[in-house]
Design a protein that fits this description.
This protein has 145 residues and is mainly alpha-helical. The chain has helices at residues 19-25, 29-48, 52-72, 77-96, 100-120, and strands spanning 9-11, 16-18. It has a domain at 29-120: Four Helix Bundle (Hemerythrin (Met), subunit A) (Up-down Bundle). A two-stranded antiparallel sheet has the order 1-2.
């Protein structure tokens, strides 16, 4: 794809930037996926702590990032939509139902299926695992009623 000839510019406080320069600064899949990993880590341990509102917050945030991935890289859009609809939705329901056993099971499927799609897209070296310890920068009990 060739660079377009947009004449619109914005100023970031340091210099003028074209629309194309701004577009190139947007996060790609690597940055978006790193953010998703952090959210999933927090989602898991919030659910384990019974902080369902916090777990739902990180679930919703991770889904938003996944949708951004599909926008950023349209070749993944169909599989991303299937993943969200088929593999993520059961986790959302377990969170909404405050069901610890179903949460654990659906979370594992959520991760396994993500890794499945990494294999489908010929990236088997990108298998994610949930860290073995909770995040140390987040109070997982905050706001529990």
């Amino acid at each position: 794809m060739s660079e377009s000839n947009h004449t619109h510019v914005v100023h970031n406080g340091k210099r003028e930037l074209t629309i194309d320069e701004l577009a190139r600064m947007q996060p790609g899949m690597d940055r978006l996926m790193a953010e998703i990993g952090q959210r999933c880590h927090r989602l898991y341990y919030a659910g384990k702590a019974g902080n369902w509102k916090l777990a739902e917050y990180f679930y919703t945030s991770a889904i938003k990032q996944l949708k951004l991935c599909a926008t950023s890289r349209p070749k993944y859009a169909e599989d991303m939509a299937a993943y969200i609809d088929e593999d993520c939705a059961p986790l959302r329901e377990a969170l909404r139902d405050r069901d610890p056993e179903r949460f654990e099971a659906t979370y594992q499927v959520f991760i396994d299926r993500a890794n499945h799609y990494h294999d489908v897209w010929k990236k088997p070296w990108l298998h994610w695992v949930t860290p073995s310890t909770p995040p140390d920068d987040l109070d997982l009990k905050a706001g529990i009623e």
